[in-house]
Every structure is written in structure tokens, then in C-alpha cells.
């Protein structure tokens, strides 16, 4: 039987207050996730309101241990976020974004993860990267990238004779992929465009919301 892993490790610079908030929210959320069916635990959870609300928000989306270790080093002024086993990337992204929003930080935090296995299974290896701000979280998954890039290259080979093919570098492939996603949204009208922006973390300015009301 093979064991699969999702591993990552990154550090966030923090003040003592920020580091304490980050570590305690994670601890509360993990406790809540572990007692997902115990309504009494949710009702009796204790702590500052902002921590409790953040922990409840994180726990409501999960049904299993996020397998995440958070180490707050007050002396170094850092929080070390890591997973040696099967870390939940979605949970980690939500936790980091909750932290950035809580302290209204104009900061970008990024990390990469690796999907590995203790045996050489064909479906076992991959990874990705996340770039997170308080407004947005941008993902790149290697499996999606490979699949999309392969389709683009296959189409180019089908449409062009060999003597007309040009070398395609990474920038071109990424540009084609991004353009494809944008074109799909643009072609479906303003409703689809707004949905696309909101799904990717865009928060419309307050004056636009006021102007859109009848």
C-alpha cells in the first residue's frame, strides 16, 4: 500500500500580536474540525470574538484534520507553517488570507507544495503554488498546467506543418492558458465576467455597489 503526501513549508514575519492570533486561530479551528459533529463544542468555544469567528469560518469548510503545524517564534518574529504529511492546501490558504484580512495587511504571501509518494506510482507526483493577498488567492497546479499546455501544443502540431513550427517557451504557454480562461469569461457576457472576478477574490469598491442599486 502506498502512502501519499502533500508537503510544504514557509515562514510569515509577524508581530507578537499577529503571531499569537495566527497560532490560536489555527488551534481553535483544528479543535472544531476534530469535533465537527459535537454541537456543544461549537457553542462553548472560548476566546476573543475575532479569533472565534475566524476559527468557525475555517472549520465550517473542512471535515478532516488539516495536518498543519504552526510554530510561533516570538523571539524571531515569525510563524512557521509546515506540513510533513498530507497538508490541506485549501485550509492553509484560507488561514493565511484570514490572517491578512484580520490585520488589514497589504502584503503578499506565497508558498509552493509538493505532492509525493513513498512508491513510484504514476499518479503520485505533482505540486503547485499559491500567491495570497487579503483580496485574492491565485493558484497554479502542475497537473492542470501540464494538461492544458499539452492540449495547446497538440493543437499547434495539428494546425501547422513541421517547417512552420516555432519554439514555444514557458511565457507563451502561460499567456495562452490565461488568455483562454479570460476569453471564456469575456465571451459569456458581463454576468460571467463579474462571476469570474468575484470567484477570484475581487471585491468591488463600495461606490460601484451603490451605483448598481436601482
Task: Give descriptors for this structure.
alpha+beta; single chain; globular; 214 residues; six-stranded antiparallel beta sheet; disordered C terminus; 20% strand
Shape: globular
Helical proportion? Answer: 40-55%
Q: Whole-number radius of gyration?
A: 21 Å
Tally of discrete structural domains:
2
- Neighbour order of strands in the largest sheet: 2-3-1-4-5-6
Mean model confidence by pLDDT: 82
Biggest β-sheet description: 6 strands, antiparallel
Point out poorly predicted stretches: 210-214
Which structural class is indicated by helix and strand composition? alpha+beta
Q: Termini distance?
A: 61 Å
Proportion of residues in β-strands: 15-25%
Order of helices and strands: EHHHEEHEEEHHHH
Total DSSP helices = 8
Topology, number of strands: 6
